[in-house]
Structures are given as C-alpha cells and as structure tokens.
C-alpha cells in the first residue's frame, strides 16, 4: 500500500487533484471521512459562470479554467450513464439602472473570447425570457454550464477507481511522518505515501497544521423548487440575485445561494428558503409565486481574505500540502488548478503567486 500521494478529501479539489496527478503518472489514494461530495462540493445544482459578481467581472484565468472544466465534464459524462451537466447558457439581467451601467462598463472594458459573452438590450432579454425583471439590458453567456455537482463527483470517483485510484470513504485517517514518508492508518490498514495533501474544505480550519491560514467558512443554502409547467418555458439558467439553475426536468429549478458568515450549524433552515424566495421574486415574480419547495441543501464554503484559492506546501513540514478555499468558484477553478498543482509537483514549476500559500507567510 505505497503511494506517491495521499489526498484527504473527496470533493472537487481532492478528486480533481487525484485525476491530475494520475495524468502525471503518480500513484494516488483518496481518503474521505464522510462520503464523496459530502461537503460544500456536493451541491445539487451549480453553474460554470465566467462572469461573476454584481458587475459581471470576468473570473481569474477564465480562458484557461473554462476549457479545463468543460473538457473534464465531457470526459466524465462519456464514462457515466447519468446525465449531470448541460450547456444551456446563462442569462445575467440587470435589475436597476445603476447595475446595468456598471455591468455594461465592465463588459466594454473586458476582452472576451469571441462568442463567450454578449450584451443584450432590455427588450432582447425580455424577448428571450418573458416575465423576467430586467432594466436596461444585461449579458447572455452561451457557454454557461449548469451542473449537478454531487452527481458529477460521484461519477468522477467511479472513473478514478476504474483507473486504479484508491478511494476510501467513511474513514478517519491517523497519520505521522517517519523516515521522510507519511504513514497513514485507516481501519486496520496502513498506507505509506511520500506526499500528504489536505483537500478537506472547511475541515481544514480545524486542523492545527493549517491554523496560520486566514480562512473563513461561509454557509450556503440551496433549495429545489417545483413550478407549474407553463412557468418554466425557459431552458437556460439565470444569474441574478443568486442563481436559478435548470438541469432539464421540465417543472423543476434549483435556487441558490445564501451567504451566511455567522452560523451555528450547517443544517438547512427556513430562513434560508425565505431568503432564496425573496431573491427569486425580484427576478421572476410569477415563477416565485407559483413554486413549491421540494428539498433543501446546505454546505460551508471556505474563503481566503482575497477570495482566491490556496495551494502549496506547508512552510515547515516537508511534503505536507494544501488545496483549498475554492469558494463558490470550485467548478470553474478546480480542474485547471489541479493540473497546475500536479505540474508543480512533477516539474517544479512555480505556483501562480495569486493562489500560492506563500502569500500568507510562515506558520
């Protein structure tokens, strides 16, 4: 049971890194104390959205991140019989004159790849989507993807197991360093590995190895609603006051997400649902009025102060690494940064300074 890498965590970060390391011909084990996609990565509906925030700013390294996740989704979809993503496009309507002005200014000053992002007038958006609230126009992103992230990650894990990656769930590993290698004990089995990687999301904040990192957990809630059929004539997803994700079921949509920085537990609650309903009423009032709740989901995303991911090696402990703080952009960042990290391990290429752990100094 000897491996080059042992990864703790089977969410977007952990599975993406396992795949990228496998592509570099490393041997990999993934250990998860709950189940695949049990944390914030397991949301039932998420977007690959290259234009985020109130002003629809182009995300960091979008031109590299988008092809990476798009190719990976297609790769895993070809392996799996379950349909878990759609290229159904993304609509971003402005809801006020000020929002429209700021969005349009950002759009005009941003260099977008051809066909990725299109400004549309208020009338064009209302023609595309009758009944939507829109003021002075907004953005249409034909490349927007909608993903059942939990289903994607379960299929991803099956794909990796078929490629001889060891994935163990429901285990609490005990680990220590000896003779420049890590010994990892799980359920009576002992693994030996050269590198140990924490890809444990919010749980990273609870481990003394990483106490020096200034990370914050943000609770997010998502709800699945069912509406009357005539109200769901649209097929695309929407990003405005949160998001409305369409995954193909004719009368269902997923509404997300809340941002709660002060929370006592990670269970979904009625306040979260009411918050989401309020958001949807501002975008699609008729849809919100006629929608009934089916189920809820909650998870805790991990943020760094600069809202950038955290990758790198522990400043004092040899061969101990972290891949975390993907925040709400896990889908967009995960595969590209995993490949970047794996290339760093194989070829000693420097990590991007914007995401390197070195920006936080020593432990």
Description:
There is one protein chain. This protein is of the alpha+beta class and 363 residues long. It has eight helices and 21 strands. Helix 2 (62-79) packs across helix 5. The radius of gyration is 21 Å and the shape is globular. The two termini are 31 Å apart.
Question: In brief, what are we looking at here?
Answer:
This protein has helices at residues 12-23, 62-79, 97-109, 122-128, 149-162, 270-283, 285-289, 330-347; strands at 2-8, 28-32, 46-48, 51-52, 57-58, 85-86, 90-93, 118-120, 138-141, 145-147, 166-169, 174-178, 181-186, 189-198, 216-227, 237-239, 243-245, 252-256, 291-303, 310-313, 320-324. With 363 residues, the chain is of the alpha+beta class.
N/C terminus separation: 31 Å
Task: Tell me the major beta sheet.
Answer: 8 strands, mixed
Kindly report the oligomeric state of this protein.
single chain
The fraction of residues assigned to DSSP E strands is 25-35%
Structural class: alpha+beta
Query: pLDDT under 50 segments (min length 5)?
Result: none
- The Rg value, from CA coordinates, equals 21 Å
Mean pLDDT: 95
Total helices: the number is: 8
Question: What series of H and E elements makes up the topology?
Answer: EHEEEEHEEHEHEEHEEEEEEEEHHEEEH
């Amino acid at each position: 049971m000897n491996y080059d890498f042992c990864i703790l965590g089977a969410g977007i970060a952990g599975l993406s890194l396992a795949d990228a390391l496998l592509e570099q011909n490393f041997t990999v084990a993934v250990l998860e104390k709950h189940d695949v996609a049990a944390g914030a990565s397991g949301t039932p509906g998420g977007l690959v959205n290259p234009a985020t925030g109130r002003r629809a700013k182009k995300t960091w390294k979008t031109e590299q991140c988008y092809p990476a996740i798009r190719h990976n989704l297609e790769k895993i979809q070809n392996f799996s019989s379950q349909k878990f993503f759609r290229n159904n496009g993304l609509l971003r309507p402005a809801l006020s004159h000020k929002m429209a002005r700021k969005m349009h200014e950002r759009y005009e000053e941003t260099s977008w790849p051809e066909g990725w992002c299109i400004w549309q007038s208020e009338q064009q958006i209302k023609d595309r989507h009758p009944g939507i609230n829109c003021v002075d126009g907004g953005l249409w992103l034909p490349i927007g993807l909608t993903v059942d992230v939990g289903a994607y990650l379960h299929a991803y894990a099956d794909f990796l197991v078929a490629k001889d990656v060891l994935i163990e769930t429901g285990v609490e590993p005990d680990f220590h360093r000896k003779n420049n290698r890590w010994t990892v004990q799980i359920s009576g089995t002992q693994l030996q590995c050269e590198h140990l990687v924490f890809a444990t999301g919010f749980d990273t904040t609870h481990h003394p190895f990483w106490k020096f990192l200034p990370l914050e957990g943000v609770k997010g809630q998502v709800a699945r609603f069912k509406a009357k059929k005539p109200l769901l004539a649209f097929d695309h997803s929407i990003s405005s006051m949160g998001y409305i994700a369409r995954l193909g079921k004719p009368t269902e949509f997923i509404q997300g997400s809340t941002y709660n920085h002060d929370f006592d537990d990670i269970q979904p609650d009625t306040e979260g649902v009411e918050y989401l309903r309020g958001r949807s009423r501002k975008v699609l009032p008729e849809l919100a009025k006629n929608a009934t709740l089916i189920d809820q989901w909650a998870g805790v995303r991990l943020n760094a102060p600069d809202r950038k991911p955290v990758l790198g090696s522990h400043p004092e402990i040899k061969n101990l690494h972290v891949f975390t703080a993907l925040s709400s952009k896990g889908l967009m960042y995960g595969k590209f940064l995993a490949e970047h990290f794996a290339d760093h391990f194989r070829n000693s290429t420097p990590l991007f300074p914007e995401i390197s752990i070195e920006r936080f100094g020593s432990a």
